[in-house]
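Q: I'm writing up a methods section and want to include an example of the input and output format. Could you take the sequence below and give the corresponding predicted structure tokens, formatted cleanly so I can copy it straight into the document?
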Amino acid sequence: MLVLEPLPEFRPSALLGRLEAARVDYVVIGGFAGLMHGMTLPTRDLDVCYSAESENLDRLGRMLVELGARLRGVAADIPFVPDGRTLPRTQILTLDTPDGPLDLLVDPSGSP
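A: Here is the clean output for your methods example:
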């Protein structure tokens, strides 16, 4: 069942700080990356492409669990733990976090 909730406050600097503190290997893509290059269209989420190496998945998973990341549009009572065991099985995750929407992609189209 799709659940529509109000968007949380968007704090991309906080999300990026958490990724850095967790030593996650990632690159910013999408609308926020465009903003950093001068694009003027607004964006309300952070799109990140991450390395699928096992140690990186563990670091990313720990950070997401500590952050309390949840699947976007899915009822809170649906179990989901974005950890190092789950992440290798996913290609795209759309998450809600206390710092705003976070989209994770392991192999976005157009990447080498």
